[in-house]
Amino acid sequence: MCSFSVSDVRIVLLGKNGSENSRVANTILGREAPFYSQQHSMRISAEMEERHISVINTHLVQPSFPQEVIIQEVKDCVRRSAPGPHVFVLVLQHSNFNENDRERVKYVLNLFSYQAMKHTVVLTTDEEPRGYMYMSYKSTNKAIHSLIKECGGGHLNFNTVSTGWCSEMFERTKEILKKECEEFLICDIYQDEGDEASADEDLSRSGASVRGDEKEKKDIKTGCDGGVSTTGKAKLNIVLCGNDSALKNSVSKIFRGKIIKPQKERSNVCVKKEEMIHGRQISVIELPALTQLSEEEVMHQTHSCLFLCDPGVHHFILVTPVSPPTNEDKAEMEKIKEIFYSNEHFMVLFITELTVDKSVSDFVASTESQSVVSVYGSWCSVMGLQDQRNSEQISDLFDCIESMKIKPYALLTYMRAQEKRVRHEEKLRVRDNEEEIETLSE
């Protein structure tokens, strides 16, 4: 049995409306705190009802924020809430919240931790529409109602006159911590190789310990989803990407031992299929062509892809036909490289409609094809959709991926990749500027 004292509470506020966030923060703190409408998070503390309360006010779910800013601000928020937040409070308005907002909120929470939803309370600051106007808001309200069901702390209504909701929030926080058998939430961002030491230091300084199911946390951070079949083969999460939707669908079916049938229509969302094949459990995710989506949809589908693969993607397979890449193919490859920014997790799979003959092998071995492999992956293979040797080849392919023993590509890998890409681009800009200055001075 775990028992907790909620005498020192760290609360992270998330919401679209900065002024509403500040109104909630001020009510919790019992005073007018100097929260400013700005991009960066702020932490302000106060003593309330024999509790030391720290409120970290953030603006992380603003639709206009690019991914790089969100990732950096999450890290900043984690530092401000060290050694870990007790509860996330989503400050929402029925009149201004839709399905895209819900997905954005879930994405941001998952950046903090896979367990963050369990530590979240939904707080609405406006009344839910009723009567004549109700139908016009119905679809918007569904997004909030769905989110409430997913959050461990349920729903509260904000009220400036009666602050009973505040006491209830603390009680629910206590219940969450008791249920999860934790003293606070350790954010997964600390599990990054570079941040692990600082997390230990914060825990040491606070004198806090984290109780809970260590096995669950371990499964999140490492290994193959704890999934090993009776044959001893590890479960694999594989993501198929590329411009040709029909080709990806055919490869997915071949991998899963299914009969290839014409695809009905192009999908604009991630499609996940699971199968036990060759004595191995596999998950195959078809990533939609990213160049066909808006930037917001790209972000949504990218993160959906990673969320579907616990503990991460073991390998991305870039599916491309045995033919010179079109401009659309090249654009898709560039988009994928820009987003995931990893060669070791990628391979190129050349696909021919019939069987692999000498002309196909020669094409794959050509300078043009190998240049694609060197830029967008670390190795390649070739497969014919009608080739009778596919079953054996697929088994070998899976064994090869497992033998590489690469750490799965997870959300943290993605965050580091974005930082590396930004640093690399900045380095290139500096180099180009230096070369331009040198040329002008000659």
TrEMBL record:
Keywords: GTP-binding, Nucleotide-binding. Pfam families: AIG1 (PF04548). InterPro entries: G_AIG1, GIMA/IAN/Toc, P-loop_NTPase. It comes from the Eukaryota. Residues 10-161, 245-427 form the AIG1-type G domain. Belongs to the TRAFAC class TrmE-Era-EngA-EngB-Septin-like GTPase superfamily. AIG1/Toc34/Toc159-like paraseptin GTPase family. IAN subfamily. GO terms for molecular function: GTP binding. It comes from Cirrhinus mrigala. Transmembrane segments: none annotated. This is AIG1-type G domain-containing protein.
